[in-house]
Design brief:
The protein is built from three helices and nine strands, in the order H-E-E-E-E-E-E-H-H-E-E-E. It is of the alpha+beta class. The chain has a single domain, classed as Roll (Nuclear Transport Factor 2, Chain: A), CATH 3.10.450.
């Protein structure tokens, strides 16, 4: 087995999800079958989903610590203290995935055209040593 495919196995696989512009997500179908995502692409997708799910939302599925606390800032002003708190929530959620070794960089910035929305951009180093980037817009209005 090649080193690349071994690393892909360590990062897992899942069904591919597409995120639409209206805040929805759906499973991707092609040629009458479900598409899969593997390796770094899977890690990036999983981290995006982790950020968008409220921490504790999957308690009934035996995952009480899965998700993020981003939702706690809905309706709050996007001032410096709240943006700093949001960064901490994002960092904590990303590091909650056992495949993540480190968050190399993290930016949380208000989106000027959409008051109450922020753009989260993170560079994450997996335990395999591979690097991936996560980008997600979150509406906190």
């Amino acid at each position: 087995m090649s080193d690349a495919s071994s690393k892909d196995l360590q990062l897992g696989s899942d069904l591919r999800v597409i995120f639409t512009g209206d805040g929805r997500a759906d499973i991707v179908w092609s040629d009458h079958d479900l598409e899969q995502v593997t390796g770094l692409d899977n890690l990036a997708q999983a981290l995006t989903l982790r950020l968008l799910v409220q921490r504790g939302e999957l308690r009934g599925l035996a995952h009480p610590r899965y998700g993020s606390r981003i939702h706690e800032l809905i309706g709050q002003t996007l001032d410096r203290p709240n943006l700093d708190l949001l960064r901490r929530h994002v960092r904590h959620a990303l590091l909650g995935d056992p495949r993540v070794a480190a968050v190399e960089s993290l930016q949380v910035e208000p989106i000027a055209a959409y008051p109450g929305a922020v753009q989260v951009t993170a560079t994450v180093r997996a335990r395999t040593g591979a690097i991936t980037q996560i980008e997600v817009a979150v509406d906190l209005a």
